Amino acid sequence: MPLSYCIPSATLVCPPQPFGLASTMGRYSTKRYVALSWAEATRLAGLDQTPLTAIRYSAAAVLIHRTEWWAWWSDELLTTAIGLPESCNPQGLSHAAVELITDVWASDSPQPDCRWSLLAQVQHVLLVEPLSQQCTDNLTTWERLLVELSNGQQRPLYRVWVRLGDQYLCQISTELPELLS
User: Fold this and answer.
1) What are the residue boundaries of the structural domains of the chain, listed by start?
2) Is 75 in contact with 61 (CB distance < 8 Å)?
């Protein structure tokens, strides 16, 4: 769903709902943050220097899952959780999906090759299989994951961990890397 420019509105509160999901919401987005109210969006815009006219609003966005650091929305957008009220804490993703998303989010990697939306569909990790390493640096680890998605389908994913001093990269893809095939 495309984002539109914001129209100031009343503060939206995350009401308690069955399964921790809000029935209506909306999301304001600045350059770096998200908010549930116009007032909070303007405060955050001051922090990241987003002009008020550049704050975007998505009326249909519903918060599905929130961790301390990131939030997953109904329009398949993964954002920072900074700026969201702590009382708004839906837990709509599986434990396996949360772990996989956090693996990539917490690393110095960009979004996963397989896309955030695929990771959000993971219900269970059924198998983690180390793959033969063709890297001689011992700082790179490849794994084949067999996952079950929310529709019951099983599919392989490939995860690589790369250590870079005190930092690391984690990437997840649907294709076996060429260097391992």
Assistant:
1) 4-80, 95-180
2) yes
Distance CA(106)–CA(167), nearest Å, equals 10
Pairwise CA distance, residues 144 & 131, whole Å:
7
Closest Cα to residue 29, out of 15, 40, 14, 16? 40
Tokens 């396996």 sit at which residue? 96
How confident is the prediction for the chain on average, in pLDDT?
A: 85
Q: Are 1 and 58 in contact (CB under 8 A)?
A: yes
Whole-number Å distance between alpha carbons of 56 and 159: 33
Residues 6+ apart with CB under 8 A from 150: 94, 121, 122, 123
- How do residues 111-151 score in pLDDT, each as one tens digit? 999 999 999 999 999 999 998 665 555 588 899 999 999 99
Going by C-alpha positions, the residue among 45, 49, 60, 42 that lies closest to residue 2 is 60
Q: Tokens for 166?
A: 């005190």
CA atoms lying within 13 Å on the CB side of residue 81: 19
- Going from the C-alpha of 27 to that of each of 5, 68, 72, 85, 122, the distances in angstroms are 11, 17, 12, 12, 24
Q: Which residue, among 28, 15, 25, 118, has the nearest Cα to 76 in the 3D structure?
A: 118
- b vs e for 73-92, b when ≥16 Cβ sit within 10 Å of the residue's Cβ? bbeebbbebebbeeebbbeb
